[in-house]
Amino acid sequence: MQAQDVQGWIDVVSAPSTLPAGQARPPSRLDRGLLAAVRIGLGFLWLGGAAWKTPPQFGGLHDWTTFAVTYPVFGPWSWLVEHLVLPNFLIFAWGVLLLEASLGGFLLVGLGTRFWAVAGIAQTLAITLSALRAPNEWPWSYFLMVMAHFAVFATAAGRYCGVDGVLRPAWQQSPSRWARMMLRAS
Amino acid sequence: MRMRNRADRAAMWLGAVSLASLLFLIIKRELHFVDIPKAGIAVAVVFGLMAIAGGWLANRAVTMAAGIGFLAAAVLQVVLQTVGSSYANGSNGSTMGLWLGLGAALVTVGLTRREA
Predict the structure, then answer these.
(1) Touching check for A41 and chain B: CB below 8 Å?
(2) Is B107 domain-assigned?
(3) What's the number of domains chain B is made of?
(4) Residue B13 falls within a domain, yes or no?
(5) How far is A15 from chain B (nearest CA, A)?
(6) Closest A-chain CA to B99
(7) Does residue B81 contact residue A97 with C-beta atoms inside 8 Å?
(8) A98 in a structural domain
């Protein structure tokens, strides 16, 4: 690859975020509705995931967690699961239940959406590193999950038919730390 | 009565979402949306109607109370499921997540200044 090729790619990646006049396309009502549908769909996905994390024993989750050791995807992750997660399984399991239920609830209503999109990416990566090589798994289901969260993060999808979109004007006017935090999270 | 603004209308929508969640009583569980237990009907109706009333009356205290009610129901669901209570039959983490989201959203609406 020559120097001008590299410079060309840098120019593409670092192009200004505002498009020239005539190329900018504000989201239509259909676009906004579709982005809300992606966000709400992801919310239901996580709620469905939280549904089978059943306290107090979390039996199904324990089986899935051991996949990281039985069918290793990434050595250091398998080591972490074997030596840190499984010996403290119940603490970990409660954390997973709370995280996935929160992901579902917050993405569904569109509150703090960009923060929860990042949390969703992190949790999807954790699941991927544990279950990617398990029998009968479809790897693209995990890749698609990550990409859907990318879309929700990049478009700040909570601003469309979500609580973020309703409350951001008030947060922008407020000098409080809480409001600034919510502005960043949304 | 105060003028309703966007945040009050959002509270009404969130209440309507709670009432609409009762549809999951008849949607097949194999579709993996949200499981609503029979004991949860009261939660969905009472706090859903409270949220609608809070938005309709532009009364943030009522909206907050509805949100706190949903959050308390979410905590109660997971406690009852953990101790194996029959009241938790037909509920799970999806129920908890739904009520957690509705509760957090209504409390946030209630805490936000009226200029919204």
Answers:
(1) no
(2) yes
(3) 1
(4) yes
(5) 34
(6) A105
(7) no
(8) yes
Does residue B41 belong to any structural domain of this protein?
yes
Chain centroid to CA B27: 19
Which of A96, A103, A108, A115 would you mutate first to test chain B, the one with the most B CBs within 10 A? A108
**pLDDT tens string A23-54:** 777 789 999 999 999 999 999 999 999 999 99
Domain containing residue A74 = 30-185
* Model pLDDT for residues A78-123, shown as the tens digit of each residue: 999 999 999 999 999 999 999 999 999 999 999 999 999 999 999 9
Give mean pLDDT, residues B18-39.
87
> Does B86 fall in a domain?
yes
Tally of domains in chain A: 1
Kindly report the pTM of this predicted structure.
Answer: 0.91
User: Is the separation of the CB atoms in A60 and A67 below 8 Å?
Assistant: no
**In this predicted structure, what is the pLDDT of residue A24?**
73
Burial of A184 (0-12, 13-18, 19+ CB in 10 A): exposed
N residues, chain B: 116
Q: Tokens 């979390």, residue? A: A58
pLDDT > 70? residue A20: no
Within a domain: A8: no
Domain hosting B11: range is 6-27+36-111
Q: Which of residues 41-80 of B touch A (CB under 8 A)?
A: 74, 78
